[in-house]
Structures are given as structure tokens and as C-alpha cells.
């Protein structure tokens, strides 16, 4: 089998992200996330199927094969280790590291990424709190639970953000929230699904979409 191209790897990683978050995997959804036309997605899925990387049937369920998932997890491992390096060693912010790591993740040298992991003293999570897959390509589970599952009166510590887009991280920056931030849940807010929190005496509103993407303990 030929090696997956950069574009093919991007599709595989996006399919893995959909699987991890429980999102519906459809051609239109995939096209919107990747910023391409639906016919391009259909063409790519057919190509990935011919390489044994996805299970795909028109109007049917789309899923990764075992081989496709291993390639996607390897990409995610490289991506998250590069993010740690950029954040800890080169001083990039957590809003900046994702786009640069998107480019670096396609460097295929396993020796490079394993040595980089050792140089960083084997980090368990990236700057957004996302768990880093192991060298055996095992996917650790997220710890804690989403903020939308929190109880009124609960004291929380933010441990991960499952969406590393600039928009989501920017919202957290405005709220003064980052990995390790502690706050109290005061109760539900308006609109429905929102949460009112208090951090260091400051009261803020977190809307449902953001609450769903924040994991706390």
C-alpha cells in the first residue's frame, strides 16, 4: 500500500476527532470541517477506501479501518508532542501552537518524535490538556467530565479543552480561564444550558457550547 499523502492524513485525523467527540460523521459535516466541497470529500473517501483506510458506502456510515485509525493516532501523537515543544520550549501561546503543529505533524520520522518526547520528559497531555497517545499508539481517556455535567456548588479545576480552535481558546482567554484554573459553579444561567461561575471573586457566564468543550475535575 502507498503511504498516505498529507491531504489523506488530514482526512484520517478529522475522522478520528469525530469518533472521539461522538460527532456525526457525514460527508457534508466532514466537508464543512475541512473547508472543501462535498464532492471532494466523496472522491477522497473512495480513495481512502481503496487504500484500506476507511469503511465507506454512499449514504452509509463512515468509519476508520484499524489501519486508518493507527495512522490517525500516530498523527495525533506527533501533533500533540509538537504542541508541547512549541509551548514549553519556544514560548508560543496555547492559541498559536495548533496551526504550527498542523504542519509539523506530517514529518514522519518516528525517531525524531520519540526523541522529542524524551527531551520533553514524556508529557502526558498537550497545552490544551488533551492526552498524548502512547508510543504503542494507545489512546488514553480524558479525565474528569465536561462542565455541562457539573453540579451547582461544585468547585472545579479546568483540566482540558477538547476544541483547540482559536475561537474557543480565545473565549477562555477573555474569561481568564486556562489549564489549572479553579472556579465555583454558582448554578444555571440564561440562555438555557449556560453556567454561571465564580473565579477569584469574578462572576462570569459560560454558554452551553463552551461548557460542553471544557473538562473539569
Strand content: 15-25%
Taking the alpha carbons of the first and last residues, their distance comes to: 44 Å
Number of helices: 8
Q: Output the helix-strand order.
A: HHHEEHHHEEHEEEHE
Which geometry do the CA atoms define? globular
Cross-sheet strand order for the largest sheet: 3-8-4-5-6-7
Residue-averaged pLDDT: 92
Short description:
The protein is an alpha+beta fold and 217 residues long.
Task: From the structure above, extract its key features.
globular, alpha+beta, 6-stranded antiparallel β-sheet, 8 strands, 217 residues
Describe this structure in words.
- The chain has 217 residues and is of the alpha+beta class.
- It contains 8 helices and 8 strands; from the N terminus they run H-H-H-E-E-H-H-H-E-E-H-E-E-E-H-E.
- The protein has helices spanning 6-21, 27-34, 38-50, 66-88, 97-104, 110-119, 166-175, 208-211, and strands at 54-55, 63-64, 145-146, 155-161, 182-189, 194-199, 202-206, 214-216.
- The strands form 2 sheets. Strands 3-8-4-5-6-7 form a 6-stranded antiparallel β-sheet. Strands 1-2 form a two-stranded antiparallel sheet.
- The chain is globular, with a radius of gyration of 19 Å.
- The termini are far apart.
